[in-house]
Specification:
The protein has 469 residues and is an alpha/beta fold. It has 15 helices and 19 strands.
Length: 469
C-alpha cells in the first residue's frame, strides 16, 4: 500500500480513456500511469479497508500488476467530477448503446451537451463536447479507427460514404431526440459536428425564458396582434429557436392555423404544421412561404430571414393579414432594422410591418455552491462601457463537484426589447433610429451588467457583451 499527497490530479485525454466512467466511480479511482506490465491508480482514502480486495478485482479486470496510491477523498471527488461525469439521468434506450458512437451520443445527451465535435489532425483524432456554450475535450481516437467511425456516422445519417470531397448534412433519429450531422472536408480528413436536438417542446414556457417582467408584457402584447412581424436576433447558439417555440406554444390554439419552415426542425408541437427545408430540391424559405400563403395560415414561422427575397416575402405575408415570426443574425434589436434596410426592404415597409425587434444572448450562471466574493476594481470593466452604479465586491467562478469544477451551472437568456411604437416607426422612416430619443429600452449590455450586479454571473462571462455596448 502506498500513500500519496496531492491537491489536484491532472489527467491527459489518452490516460482518461483507459478506464470507463462506471469503473472510475465504482472503485473511486483515477488512473496515474499505464504500462505493459503495471497499471497505477490513485484511490480514495475511504476505500482503504477494502484496499486489497479492490487491488485483486482490478488485477482480474486488467490482467496486469496493479499499484494503488491513496489520496484524500476531496482530491478524488474533484477528479471524478471533472474527468468522469456521471450521467444526470438513466436512458430508456440503454439497449441501443452497443458501440462507441452510440455511447458518445447518449452520454452527450445525458450531460446536456449541445454539440459533439470530431476533428482529425495529422497524428490523432479529437472528440470535444459543447456544454453550456463551452467546448471541452472528451476523447482521443486512434487514426486507424477514424474511418470506421466516420462511415458509421454516415450510414446512420443516410449520407454517401463514398463522398469525401464535399460537405454533407444528415440526421440520426432516436425515439426521444434527433442528431443533426454536418460533415466538412478539411486538410487531414472529414470533420464532423453532431448537434443534439430535443424533440418535445411541451416543457417550454415563455414566462421561464429570462424575460424581465416589463419586457415579457411588451412581448406578449406584440404577439397578440393578428398581423405583423416578430423578429428575434442573435448569434448561433443564443437560444433564438427556443424563444420562437415557446412563443408558438403560447399561441397554439385549436382555432389557429400555424405553419413553420425550419432548418432543421428542432422541436415538435402537436397542432403545428412543420416543414423541413430542402434547398437541394428547391424547397427554400422563399418557396415554402409562397406555398404557405395558399394554406390559409394565421401564423407563419420562418426559421431564418437570410436574404432580401425572404425578407420581402415575410413583409408581404404580414401585409396580407398574417403574423410572421422569424430569426435574423444581428447584434442588437436596432441592428435588425439596419440589416433589413441593407437587404433592400424599404424603410416605410419596415416601420409598417415590424411589431417588435428582440435581441438575445445566453449567459452562464455562477455556481451558487462555490462562487466566491472578491474585491472589485472598476478599471477591469471595458473602456467602452460606462456604469453609474458603484460596485465594491463581485463574485468569481471557483469550481466544485456540483458544477464539475467549471464554476458555472446553467445558463439564462437576456433580452433587448425594441417595440415599434409610433415614435420609433417615424424614426425608422426618417433613418434617424440610432440617434432617436424615443428609444428608451435597456441594451443587452445593461441586462448583462444587471446579472453581474446581482452576483448571478461573472465579469469574465459578460465581458464580450459589455465590449459591444
Amino acid at each position: 500500500m502506498e500513500a500519496a499527497k496531492s491537491n489536484h490530479i491532472n489527467l491527459t485525454t489518452s490516460l482518461q480513456q483507459t478506464i470507463s466512467s462506471e469503473v472510475a466511480n465504482h472503485f473511486l479511482i483515477i488512473p496515474k500511469s499505464f504500462s505493459e506490465t503495471e497499471h497505477v491508480f490513485f484511490i480514495d482514502e475511504i476505500q482503504e479497508p477494502k484496499f486489497y480486495n479492490i487491488q485483486e478485482e482490478l488485477m482480474l479486470l486488467f490482467n496486469k500488476q496493479i499499484n494503488l496510491k491513496i489520496v484524500e477523498s476531496a482530491v478524488i471527488k474533484k477528479a471524478l467530477s471533472i474527468y468522469y461525469r456521471k450521467n444526470v439521468s438513466e436512458s430508456k434506450q440503454v439497449s441501443y448503446r452497443n458501440d462507441f458512437l452510440e455511447d458518445l451520443i447518449f452520454e452527450a445527451k445525458h450531460i446536456s451537451a449541445s454539440d459533439i465535435h470530431i476533428e482529425i489532425y495529422e497524428e490523432d483524432v479529437r472528440v470535444r463536447l459543447r456544454i453550456d456554450g463551452q467546448l471541452i475535450e472528451k476523447n482521443n481516437i486512434k487514426k486507424e479507427n477514424y474511418l470506421e467511425l466516420i462511415n458509421q456516422i454516415k450510414i446512420k445519417s443516410n449520407l454517401d460514404i463514398t463522398e469525401k470531397r464535399l460537405p454533407q448534412d444528415g440526421r440520426i433519429e432516436y425515439d426521444e431526440f434527433d442528431v443533426r450531422v454536418s460533415i466538412l472536408p478539411t486538410h487531414h480528413g472529414e470533420k464532423v459536428v453532431m448537434r443534439i436536438l430535443g424533440r418535445d417542446a411541451s416543457h417550454l414556457d415563455i414566462y421561464q425564458l429570462g424575460f424581465e417582467e416589463e419586457d415579457v408584457l411588451l412581448y406578449l402584447e406584440s404577439i397578440k396582434k393578428t398581423n405583423g412581424i416578430i423578429l428575434i436576433s442573435g448569434p448561433t447558439g443564443s437560444g433564438k429557436t427556443t424563444t420562437l417555440y415557446a412563443t408558438l406554444k403560447h399561441l397554439n390554439h385549436t382555432s389557429t392555423n400555424i405553419v413553420t419552415v425550419e432548418d432543421p426542425i428542432e422541436y415538435t408541437l402537436r397542432g403545428i404544421n412543420q416543414v423541413q427545408l430542402k434547398e437541394n430540391i428547391g424547397l427554400t424559405f422563399t418557396s415554402a412561404l409562397r406555398s404557405f400563403l395558399r394554406q390559409d395560415p394565421d401564423i407563419i414561422m420562418l426559421g431564418e430571414i437570410r436574404d432580401g427575397q425572404t425578407a420581402q416575402m415575410a413583409i408581404r405575408a404580414s401585409l396580407t393579414g398574417h403574423l410572421v415570426l422569424s430569426t435574423i443574425h444581428t447584434n442588437s434589436a436596432i441592428g435588425t432594422i439596419s440589416r433589413l434596410v441593407d437587404m433592400g426592404v424599404p424603410a416605410f415597409l419596415i416601420a409598417e410591418t415590424i411589431n417588435i425587434s428582440v435581441a438575445q444572448r445566453l449567459v452562464r450562471l455562477l455556481c451558487d455552491t462555490c462562487k466566491e466574493k472578491q474585491d472589485f476594481n472598476a478599471n477591469d470593466l471595458p473602456k467602452t462601457f460606462n456604469s453609474n452604479k458603484p460596485l465594491n465586491k463581485h463574485f468569481v467562478a471557483i469550481g466544485c463537484n456540483d458544477c464539475y469544477h467549471t464554476g458555472y451551472k446553467g445558463r439564462q437568456a437576456i433580452y433587448e426589447i425594441l417595440p415599434i411604437t409610433y415614435e420609433v416607426a417615424e424614426a425608422i422612416k426618417n433613418n434617424t433610429l440610432e440617434h432617436s430619443k424615443s428609444i428608451k429600452n435597456k441594451s443587452l449590455s445593461d441586462k448583462a451588467f444587471s446579472l453581474f450586479l446581482k452576483g448571478s454571473t461573472s465579469l469574465d462571462e459578460i465581458y464580450p457583451i459589455l465590449i459591444k455596448s
